[in-house]
Design goal:
The chain has helices spanning 2-18, 28-35, 39-42, 61-73, 81-86, 90-102, 116-127, 131-134, 152-164, 174-180, 184-195. It is mainly α.
Length: 198
């Protein structure tokens, strides 16, 4: 059932890119205008100051689009984002993806290289091959999220949600596989490490 759901979502997202006819190019200015309603939670410059609310600045275009499609379809559950995404058409989703991708990512909080939690997180990132999807510098790309500099509370919630099955990935079970063996202390270390990466 999850595979069928993932395939349907993949088709829906590909419809954003190729559509029935030629898709309109994304319009960053229109995305900025649409994003004004998002600024109250995600920040005027896409950098969130609100607990448990992700920063979107610097996320890849495709990642933002995937998440909005997930919210719009109800595959990713959120009482706040569900209704917002349902009101967006495909062009608005394209525009928002392009807009947030154009913004400067958040600056991470400074951390000591000798911080034991950071060291544990770095080791876990190597062990679980986080760079293979999220990039050498954890800046994400394609459907994979930018992790570097993201809010620590957001990262921890995402890891917990992937582990519990409350959140799905982009058509593959990689995050469920990664989090399967992680205890909560491991997830806290990974979230701490990723949040402090530039």
């Amino acid at each position: 059932m999850k595979l069928v759901s993932s395939l349907l979502l993949a088709l829906a997202l590909s419809g954003l890119r190729i559509g029935i006819g030629p898709a309109s190019a994304a319009d960053v200015s229109a995305g900025k205008a649409t994003a004004e309603t998002c600024a109250g939670c995600h920040g005027a410059d896409g950098v969130s100051q609100m607990p448990l609310t992700p920063s979107l600045a610097g996320q890849s275009d495709e990642f933002v689009q995937w998440q909005l499609v997930y919210f719009r379809s109800g595959t990713r559950k959120s009482e706040v984002m569900g209704p917002i995404a349902e009101a967006l058409d495909n062009q608005q989703i394209r525009n928002l993806g392009a807009y947030y991708a154009s913004l400067t990512p958040p600056r991470p909080p400074s951390a000591l290289a000798t911080d034991p939690l950071m060291q544990t997180g770095a080791n876990l990132a190597i062990e679980h091959r986080c760079k293979s999807c999220h990039g050498e510098d954890f800046a994400g790309g394609g459907p994979a999220a930018r992790l570097a500099g993201q809010r620590e509370d957001v990262l921890l919630k995402a890891l917990r949600d992937f582990k519990s099955g409350a959140r799905v990935g982009t058509g593959v079970a990689s995050m469920a596989d990664v989090t399967f063996e992680l205890g909560d202390a491991d997830m806290q270390a990974l979230a701490h490490y990723m949040a402090t990466q530039p």
